[in-house]
Amino acid sequence: MTAPKKPDSGSFRSDRPDSGTFRVPALSPETVAIQDVVSRMYQTQDPAELVQLLTSAAIAHTHAVGATVFLRDPEGAFKGGNHVLLPENTVIDYVCSQTRPITVPQADRWITVFPLRASATPLGLLVLDVTGVAEEVARLDLEPVTILSDQAAVLIHHAHMVRRSIGESTLLSNILDSITNAIVTLDLDGRITRLNRNAMAVLELSPDVVGRPYSEVFLPEVTKAVDGLLRETAQMGFAMERMATAKLASGLELNIALSLSILRDETWAPRGTIVVLRDMTASRELDRLRKLDTMKSEFVANVSHELKTPLTSIKAYTEALMDMTPEGQTRSFLKVIDEESDRLLFLINDLLNVSRIQSGKMKLNVDRTPPRAVVDEILGISKVQSDKHELVVEIAPTLPLMWLDKEKLKEVMVNLISNAIKYSPKGGKVWVRMFLESSNLKIQVQDQGIGIAKENIPNLFQAFYRVDSSHTAEIAGTGLGLVIVKAIIEHHGGRIWLDSEVGQGSVVSILLPVVHELNTSELGRQLGSMAEGG
Questions:
Q1: If you average pLDDT over residues 355-371, what whole number do you get?
Q2: Which of 256, 276, 520, 522 is the most exposed place for a label (fewest CB within 10 A)?
Q3: Cα separation of 207 and 200, whole Å?
Q4: What would the pLDDT profile of 225-267 be if each residue is shown by its tens digit?
């Protein structure tokens, strides 16, 4: 009995009784090498490593001198490889359109160019330097390199898409984290799919709540509000914002406003919901402070009105008594009462003006006025007169008529001149100037007084601000005058500023637009709203 004959190499005998013997083609070393490279390509997501695997395999197959890969950028330029081997545009166009390799001369060398394509899109080029071996390469079967180029192109494209997706996801996370509101996204089953940093802070959550139902991790009051929003959205297609008061583990109570919108995909199909939570604690506190500020302004206005009436009577009776009283000690006492009444009336008027400014109720009564009249009509007022000071008035002779609130501008000039006198305790000159400058009326009040330090100048136009200095300690004032002056000037469409140097005096400058005709088109940006109020 003879032993059974062994099957030939490369053949396979089936155990099934009805099968014969068939041969399995043996894989060539080149095919095995290609499979190995492709396998290694699929194990990486790094485009640089994919390029290295492709060029190494191409050089091994063709014995090329060198190899490089150019990738196409969004503008269509091929970049990234050895620029010496970059083919001419005609060669690139041919390779990309015909989708097959070509060997061509370039300068003092020969190159073989393979297209890298993902789907129908030219992704890049594989360029081999075949100088000295071009004839051998021309006789080679380049199909293995073409296969590797196609595989590499697909994987490089996929790697770029993955990186882009990761980058966009990171960007979206950064955007969500920068939003001050708390944002939570839910899927159709009510499970959390994403939440930003503020949501974790407000709701006292950690990142590992992603994937869990919101009802398990939200605070009970918030869960109840979200339940209601979801029901309302399901019934009506939208939901009104709801308020909830949530008590944190620390015992702190938060006032939260919740709103909800449907999360949709690119086909507009519902994918879940977006829950937006706003911490209203700060907003409510701000509203409370605004109400307090309004109440304060109204209180000041009401008290000032109530004080003004009896003070007016006191002043009137005092003046009457002074007229009936001969010179003497009694008359001097009455004069003190009269002067102090004036001081109180000025203070009350300042408080009323500041109250109107803060409440937006200041109005201008504008009329065609010669600017010089504003100065001429205040020169006899005691507040702008002083035995120790010389008032120098320098007014240009040809100033045009302007639409001004003369009474309020008189108040501005009295305030500025009296300040110049007060803050020049040793006397000296006080200049009042009016002239035209670039189609604007410029007003200046300059003194030779104590001056103001540079760091204090920005605060001068704030209510109740006074410079804390030994030089100003004995000078009476409320810190309201310049606030009122600034408001009046700005209501005229102008601006005011101050230049000063300690020990050298100060210059207050005002710039007012010259308005010749009172109409909406010309005054829209300057006096339109104020003229309506007047």
A1: 78
A2: 520
A3: 8
A4: 999 999 998 888 778 888 888 887 777 778 888 999 888 888 8
**Structural domains in the chain plus CATH codes:** 29-162 (3.30.450.40), 179-279 (3.30.450.20), 287-359 (1.10.287.130), 367-533 (3.30.565.10)
Residue 208 has what pLDDT? 92
Cite the DSSP H helix spans in 119-259: 134-139, 143-178, 197-203, 214-217, 220-236
- What is the pLDDT averaged over residues 280-284? 69
State the Cα–Cα distance between residues 414 and 513, nearest whole angstrom: 21
- Average pLDDT of the chain, as a whole number: 81
Question: What is the SS3 assignment for 8?
Answer: coil
For the entire predicted model, the pTM comes to 0.43
Q: Do 247 and 275 form a contact (C-beta atoms < 8 A)?
A: no
Does residue 397 or residue 246 have the better pLDDT? 397
Q: How far is the C-alpha of 191 from the C-alpha of 272, rounded, in Å? A: 9
Quick count: other Cβ atoms within 10 Å of Cβ 504?
12
Structure tokens, 521: 């088109």
Q: CA dihedral in degrees (26, 32, 34, 37; nearest 10)? A: 160
Cα-based torsion angle of the residue sequence 184, 190, 192, 195 in order, rounded to the nearest 10 degrees: 0
Quick check: 468 pLDDT over 60? no
Structure confidence at residue 1 (pLDDT):
40
Spatial separation of the C-alpha atoms in residues 209 and 193, rounded to whole Å: 9
What pLDDT is stored for residue 11 in this prediction? 39
Longest dimension (CA), the chain: 166
Provide CB contacts within 8 A for 429, sequence distance 6+: 389, 390, 391, 392, 447, 448
Alpha-carbon span 278 to 259, nearest angstrom: 9
Other C-beta atoms closer than 10 Å to the C-beta of 510 total: 24
* CB of 297 closer than 8 Å to CB of 323: no
Cβ 70 vs Cβ 79: under 8 Å: yes
Task: State percent of the chain over pLDDT 90.
Answer: 28
User: If DSSP codes are grouped into helix, strand and coil, which group holds residue 116?
Assistant: strand
Cβ partners under 8 Å of residue 68, min gap 6 = 55, 81, 82, 85, 126, 127
Long-range contacts, stretch 279-282, CB < 8 angstroms, 24+ apart = 279/182, 279/202, 279/254, 279/255, 280/243, 280/255, 280/256, 281/254, 281/255
